[in-house]
Amino acid sequence: MSKKKNPAAARPPIHMIDREADRLTELALQKQHDLPRHHELLLDEIDRANICSAADIRSNVVTMGSRVTFTDEKTGNQRTVELVYPGEANIDAGRISILTPVGAGLIGLSTGQSILWPDQRGAEHQLTIVEVEQPAQ
Prior knowledge:
Blueprint: E1 15-17, H1 18-30, H2 36-48, E2 50-52, E3 67-72, E4 78-84, E5 95-97, H3 101-106, E6 114-118, E7 124-133
Parallel strand pairs: 1-2, 4-5
Antiparallel strand pairs: 3-4, 3-7, 6-7
Helix pairs in contact: 1-2
């Protein structure tokens, strides 16, 4: 008899800033009817995150406004994007919304971590964080 794997159990530990977690929870709940799968992914990540103050977040952790370079291990493609709120998103400028599958998958990860994460069509990709740059304060 085989056991079903719980994909969340295999996900790496993540960290989120308390203010951002609160704002992202509100945003996900507001958009739950427009983007049901995306909001669910984001809420699941917030639920499993270690929530801490901004002062306690390491500089190599992906937070809102971070520029993050990651590799899609399935395709070998490497991308650098800035993680932003939906109103600031502009894919041509490299700014991706937290309400996209990739955005929700990146939040809270740190350099060197990988996560198995679905794309828009549900196909899973392993995303590996190569570098994280924090916005200037």
